[in-house]
Amino acid sequence: MTGGLGWMYGRDLPLLSITFARQINARELLERMGVDQNTVAVREQDDFHYELGGHLYVSDGYVVSAGHYGSWAWVWEHGSWKCIEDRGLVLRASVGTAALVLNASEKPGVVFRYAENGRLITGLDTTTSLVPADRTGSDMHRFDTEMQALGARPEEHEYGPLGSRGMFYRLAENLGVGVPLDDLNERPVLSGRLLPPASR
Question: What is the pTM of this model?
Answer without folding.
Answer: 0.94
